[in-house]
Amino acid sequence: MLSASVTVDPAFVVGPVRPRTFGSFVEHLGRCVYTGIHDPGHPTADEDGFRGDVLDLVRELGVTTVRYPGGNFVSGYRWEDGIGPVGERPRRLDLAWHSTEPNLVGVDEFVRWCARAGVEPMMAVNLGTRGVQEALDLLEYCNVPGGTRWSDERRKNGAEDPYRVKMWCLGNEMDGPWQIGHKTAHEYGRLATETARAMRMVDPGVELVVCGSSGSQMPTFGEWEHVVLTEAYEHVDHVSAHAYYWEEDGDLASFLASAVDMDHFVESVAATADAVRAAGKHSKRINISFDEWNVWYQKRAESRPPSGDDWPVAPVLLEDRYNVADAVVVGSLLISLLRHTDRVHAASLAQLVNVIAPIMTEPGGRVWKQTIFHPFALTARHARGEVLRVAVDAPVHETAKFGEVSAVDAVATHDAETGDVTLLAVNRSTTDPVALDVDLRGFPGLRVVEALTLANPDHTWAATADDDASVAPRPNASATVVDGRAVAQLPPVSWSVVRLARA
Ligand code: AHR
Q1: Whether the CB of 76 sits within 6 Å of ligand 1
Q2: Active-site residue, 292 included
Q3: CATH 2.60.40.1180: which residues of the chain?
Q4: Quick check: CB of 94 below 6 Å from ligand 1?
Q5: What is the pLDDT of residue 303?
Q6: Ligand 1 atom 4, closest CA
Q7: How far is 195 from 197, CA to CA, in rounded Å?
């Protein structure tokens, strides 16, 4: 048994827990939309064809914002194809995923789905095959009350009131050579700036996300943010970050330490944004929208799009099955996002349903939870108030990818109104349990109200439609408070939440 201690103090405030940290993402990709959120033949489908059982799980997951409609898809998308009578909408080639887009769901349906799910829509505009004008048209359609070409079209389509969508992404992954309409940093910086300037003329209240890097392994990482922000700084609010390169490739120790890499990514982007701020003598700060993140096994067959003359509607794509170790990593990546709440102002788990997703569906049939559902739902539910940086003193071990890492990673939140404290912790040891000792010096009178741990002797256990519950987070009976210190045992390869409240 290893020993570790964590000190939690109310003075070590990083910033508020931001609801937008618990965003997700719905792309027209594979079965995310069609047979995912939308399945008109399903017994629980509503008048728009949206599955009620999926909506129930989206609400249980605690998702706050949903980014739409892509992803790579958006860079070839004509949003006008998705409005008006459904039967008259065109079918189009989706070049990003070599599929056929039937346009049964478009912006109006999506906004109605968001209202039912209780989430904030976050729209992306196409800066791949399109430009300033089409972004303005979509913004006019969504946010202008009426009396103009596109706002009246929205009203004709049944939405009298404007949608007032606040968050807008200026394209998607424009640094990636795979992106339709891929650009150099200079080209994109100019286009993003002019799009942002014009969008603010239509609606000064929008919050704009400029594309950062598609990963810190990109050859242009750092330089891309520097060039784009030097151009666009005064016109945007956030810079995006995307990361998916965490997967278990036979090196479990490195995989469990993936949050070290996310920490590095966030800190590098923040440093670059601050360097541009200083050089440009800007006063505002640019923050990060980490609007695509997850574990993704990109080399698996499920991630290969169709080819040739095969352009299916809603093929099975990117349907990764997540195991217990994947869920521990997702929990630890959420710890990293919370730890950086001073700079990460929004984030989106990619994606929501079927495509690298916490929620899976059978067409016309069952809905079920993947292992990664649990750490997300529990963190979204119990992280409240302010994020506290904690001091961790734990044994370290060597990893091939990230060098020496601490066996324990943790973060805490403190709700000053209720006095409640939530501790989120992972044990990254592949072999040893950890006896955790938590110094609660600044919080007299706390007791454990609930402690849950996600672990399994076989960390490769993955949920299925037949069994998505036998390895869910379980009460951790070892968690208790003794003399102002909380103690708990953390099994190897585990993620835990410990909720403390005044007695
Ligand atoms: O989420 C899957 C894909 O990953 C998205 O379409 C793209 O933005 C990223 O490369």
Answers
A1: no
A2: yes
A3: 2-9+387-502
A4: no
A5: 75
A6: 71
A7: 6
Whether the model pTM is above 0.85: yes
C-alpha 460/C-alpha 162 separation (Å) is 47
Cα–Cα distances (Å) from 259 to 15, 51, 119, in that order, read 19, 34, 27
Cβ of 213 less than 6 Å from ligand 1: no
18-382: which CATH number, 3.40.50.300, 3.20.20.80, 3.20.20.120, 3.40.225.10?
Answer: 3.20.20.80
Which residue among the candidates 173, 225, 231, 247 is catalytic per the annotation?
173
Question: How many beta carbons lie within 10 A of that of residue 363, not counting itself?
Answer: 13
Helix (H, G, I), strand (E, B) or coil at 404: strand
Distance from Cα 71 to the centre of ligand 1, integer Å: 5
Q: Does the CB atom of residue 351 touch ligand 1 within 6 A?
A: yes
Q: What is the pLDDT of residue 379?
A: 98
Q: Which atom of ligand 1 is nearest to the CA of 176?
A: 10
User: Which regions of 154-284 does DSSP assign to beta strands (E)?
Assistant: 167-170, 207-210, 238-246
Report which protein residue has its CA nearest ligand 1's atom 5: 71
The string of DSSP codes covering 265-281 is: HHHHHHHHHHHHHHHHT
The whole-number pLDDT of residue 160 equals 98
Whose C-alpha lies nearest to ligand 1, atom 6?
71
Residue 47 annotated among the catalytic residues of the structure: no
pLDDT tens-digit readout, 175-189: 999 999 999 999 999
Residue type, 169: C
- Token representation of residue 437: 């000792």
377, 61 Cβ separation under 8 angstroms: yes
Instruction: Compute, in angstroms, the gap from residue 478 CA to the centroid of ligand 1.
Output: 41
Q: Give the number of C-alpha atoms closer than 13 A to the C-alpha of residue 64, restricted to the C-beta side.
A: 18
- Burial environment of residue 444 by CB neighbours within 10 A (0 to 12, 13 to 18, 19 or more): exposed
Q: Is residue 292 lining ligand 1, measured as CB closer than 6 Å?
A: yes
* Residue intervals in the chain for CATH 3.20.20.80: 18-382
Kindly list the distances between the CA atom of residue 109 and the CA atoms of 73, 269, 270, 279, in Å, as whole numbers in the listed order: 17, 35, 36, 44
**Annotation: CATH topology of 2-9+387-502:** Immunoglobulin-like (2.60.40)
pLDDT score for 281: 98
How far does the centroid of ligand 1 lie from the alpha carbon of residue 336, in Å? 21
Ligand 1: does its nearest atom lie under 6 Å from the Cβ of 294?
A: no
Residue nearest to atom 3 of ligand 1 (CA): 71
Query: What tens digit of pLDDT does each residue of 131-168 get?
Result: 999 999 999 999 999 999 999 999 999 999 999 999 99
pLDDT < 50 stretches in the chain? none
Residue 110 CA to ligand 1 centre (angstroms): 19
